[in-house]
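Sequence in, structure out.
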Amino acid sequence: MMIYMPYLIAGLLTVLLFVGLVTIHATRRGLPAGVHRLSSVLVAAAGVFGFAIPYVYDRQIGYL
């Protein structure tokens, strides 16, 4: 299962990059601080779940 580790690390770094880009974009557009946080949290959650769910699913299937 170590083959997934580089993908998980790359996914985490990609999520951090996109969260930063969303925050910068929201700041430049002059959106309220609540929108900054909400959009950053939504992007982070989507990214983490997008990489974590297939990993967990594969681990569970491996037990069968």
